[in-house]
Structures are given as structure tokens and as C-alpha cells.
Design brief:
Layout: E1 2-12, E2 17-23, E3 33-34, E4 37-39, H1 46-58, E5 67-74, E6 81-91, E7 103-110, H2 111-114, H3 121-127
Parallel strand pairs: 1-6
Antiparallel strand pairs: 1-4, 2-3, 2-7, 5-6
């Protein structure tokens, strides 16, 4: 089994809303809401990967040191992969958002409203 490490960032505005991105073209996750992040590349440290992924997905870098809030073991069906995902949270206003081709739209929503959207189940688990 191949081990991969992933990082995600929950970006919370000064109004207490979180930035969600709607996935586009990603097989089983297409159309689900998610937060910026992705897999760490070989010889890349976690914070560098988090900065890179956030920049690639929303076109903006973040300041400060995010807080680690969750670690999850993920075993995608029939993949032979074990993913360890680390999810961080950061309070910062980020605008404008320039989406990559991986996403079709974005929005800031309250934690309460996020829980009623069609979220990636692993992100929903972190928000509960």
C-alpha cells in the first residue's frame, strides 16, 4: 500500500465564515464543496505544500501560522493508497479569490450553512 500525505486549509474570515470551493471534474467528488488543499510532493514540507496548494487553487497566498485541527486516515476504495490528511485552520480575510480549473465556484458561508451544503464527507467530519 502506498502512503500519501495531504494538507487542507479551512480559511475563516473576520465574520466567522469559511471559504468553500466547489469541485469540478474530479470523478467521485465532482460538484461537492471542499476547502483548498492537496497532496504533498516528494521532498516538500507540509507548510510549503499548504502554501503551494492554496495558491494553486485560489490564486492567493496566506499569512500567519495555521492551527492544526484534524488528522484523518483515508483509504480510497480500490486505490491501494493510504492518505493521511492534515487539516489546518487560519483566520484571515482573503480576497480576491482566483479559482483554478479544479473548481467551478467559491463562496464564504457560516459553519452552520456549510454543514447543509453538499460537502466532501471528510471535510464535513472536521466541521462537525
Amino acid at each position: 500500500m502506498k502512503l500519501q500525505i495531504g494538507v487542507k486549509l479551512i480559511i475563516e474570515s473576520s465574520k466567522g465564515e469559511i471559504l468553500l470551493l466547489k469541485r469540478a471534474g474530479h470523478e467521485e467528488l465532482d460538484g461537492l464543496w471542499d476547502v483548498p488543499g492537496g497532496r504533498i510532493e516528494p521532498h516538500e514540507d507540509m507548510m510549503s505544500a499548504l502554501h503551494r496548494e492554496v495558491y494553486e487553487e485560489i490564486g492567493v497566498d496566506f499569512d500567519g501560522i495555521p492551527e492544526l485541527i484534524a488528522a484523518q486516515d483515508i483509504f480510497p476504495a480500490k486505490s491501494g493508497v493510504h492518505v493521511v490528511r492534515l487539516t489546518y485552520r487560519l483566520k484571515q480575510n482573503i480576497t480576491p479569490v482566483l479559482l483554478s480549473d479544479e473548481h467551478s465556484e467559491f463562496r464564504y458561508v457560516s459553519y452552520k450553512d456549510a454543514k447543509i451544503l453538499a460537502l466532501d464527507p471528510l471535510i464535513l467530519e472536521v466541521l462537525i
